[in-house]
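Thread: quick sanity check before group meeting

JM: Hey all, I'm pulling together slides for Thursday and realized we never actually wrote out the predicted structure for the chain we discussed last week. Dropping the sequence here so it's in one place. If anyone has concerns about the input, flag it before I start.
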Amino acid sequence: MNWLEALKAELNKDEVTQNKLARDLGISSSMLSQVVRGIYPGNTDTLQARVEGRLMDYTVQCPVKGCIRRDECLDHQKKPFSSANRERVKIHRACRSGCPHSTLEPTVNAQRIDVRASPTDEAYNLDSQLAYIRRSAQGDPLKLNDLLEKELSRLASRYNQLLWSSKYARRSKS
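JM (edit): ok, ran it. Output follows.
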């Protein structure tokens, strides 16, 4: 099913009105009407991304947030800069520094940010680590599998070290 068929199928549902769906997608109801009838003269790439994200659950790998829906990606790109939230700052930079999913032109001041694994002295953050691994795999399933195996080996090694140190720490106290 392509995005236009998904859009028409959503409009055929009893509880969905054209105005409500247009509002949910962030477009005007007249644009929605013209697109459905096939007479919209403009570019529909943004609408396609919104429909694929909202109605078809297509996802992208955000350098900051990990796996998110395509429409969420577009929403983050439209947000203005705000230094009140560290994540918003990272998202703002990522969207403007050559992210492959961004529709924005890269700016000169923006620098590509990479989210790294947390140091060993901090708590293990599963969501951040998975997002980092997925980004590093760059959409290649074989590379993703390899990276996940390495992470599992690293975790097993760390776990065994902790078990070993706690076992011998108890013996030395006795």
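AS: nice. The first strand starts at residue 59 and ends at 62. The beta strands are 59-62, 66-69.
JM: adding both to the slides.
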